[in-house]
Amino acid sequence: MVHQPFEDGDELWALSGRGTFPPDVYDHPEWYSYGDAAKECAAIIKAVRGCPDAPVTIYRAVPHGISTINTGDWVFIAESPARLHAQVSEDPAADWPVITATVRADQIRSGGSDIIEWGYYGPTLTATTVNTVA
Predict the structure, then answer these.
(1) Does CATH place domain 12-129 in 1.10.8?
(2) Any long-range contacts for 47-53 (C-beta under 8 Å, 24+ apart)?
(3) pLDDT at 80
(4) Cβ–Cβ contacts within 10 Å for residue 36, how many?
(5) Integer distance in angstroms from the first to the last C-alpha of the chain?
(6) Would you give per-residue pLDDT tens digits along the chain (134 residues)?
(7) Phi/psi of residue 25, each to 5°?
């Protein structure tokens, strides 16, 4: 069985619209998150609330040679958790690249567990590689 985000989960612009999150997610996003990226993600969900066409930058850690983000892929709305996910060994040279694209808020759906990890549900797109952190 493949672990994938919920295709019918709450859309980023309307959290609690489909019942993945309760309505208090906007007042207390810290109850639905963890780690250092929580505040950044909370600010994003509040900024796009009620705006399905709002542009949102998404990030994905991928093996070398991959440059697309596909329907149903896991994505992050903050760069830092994608960078953590890209760390695949003790050797930084082996880490995966992080790719990025800007999509509409209605193309991002909840993964069901927190406000940091999301699913992308738009057409396959070619992404840009994010420069590595020095």
Answers:
(1) no
(2) 48/12, 48/13, 48/105, 49/13, 49/14, 49/15, 50/13, 50/14, 51/13, 51/105, 52/11, 52/13, 52/14, 52/104, 52/105, 52/106, 53/104, 53/105, 53/106
(3) 92
(4) 11
(5) 37
(6) 466 788 888 999 999 877 788 889 999 888 888 778 899 999 999 999 999 999 999 999 999 999 999 999 999 999 999 999 898 878 888 889 999 999 999 999 988 788 999 999 999 999 999 976 54
(7) -60, -30
